[in-house]
Amino acid sequence: MEFQREKFTPRIDRLAKALEKPLADAVVLDIGIGYGSFLQILEHDFGVSRVFGMDPFPKSLELARQNTGADLRMGDIDDSEWPFVSGEFDAIACFDVIEHLVVPATFFVRARRYLRDGGLLLATTPNKLLPYHMRKLPLVGIPDRNPTHINVRVPEYWRRLATATGYTIVEEWMGEHLSHVRYVPRLVGAALEKLGFDPREVAGLNHFQQSFCLLLRKY
Description:
This protein is α/β, with parallel strands linked by helices. The chain is about 30% helix and about 25% strand.
């Protein structure tokens, strides 16, 4: 859970800052729940009581229920109707899922239906800049071996898709941790941290961050 807190807490802090109400009063939906860690942290660390999750896999729902008391429901992004009420949510999160979709626009369109006016959408996806392509380099690169990564795209693709489907960009960043290439980025990142710099904020080096993150507002 310590790793999960390091991963999710900065995202939740950004979400809380952009919300139009206190986070503890918000209604939040997580799409693609994994082990339920994000929802668990919302509940236990941030006092959010109205939390929901949706996932198409029964096993994911079973495992997540061991970690969170959230209202978890079976559903697929591609379903024409999700098992919720339109306009129900103040925020919807979707971490490392949209790159698996044949038509990623479907997610943005569907999510907008279930967000309240002014609601927030927080999405992350692999950061496809030059370092991502360097993953193919022998010995140095860390290959992407996930065959379901069928729509890994450059950040500009996601920016345009978000604005075309009814959102304004509140904030974007490259984050999570240095990856894609072995050795050098991590050594440089560690040195910068000792000097008091955040590698995620250093132009160029932040391209080695695993995730491209978008915080969007429904208009």
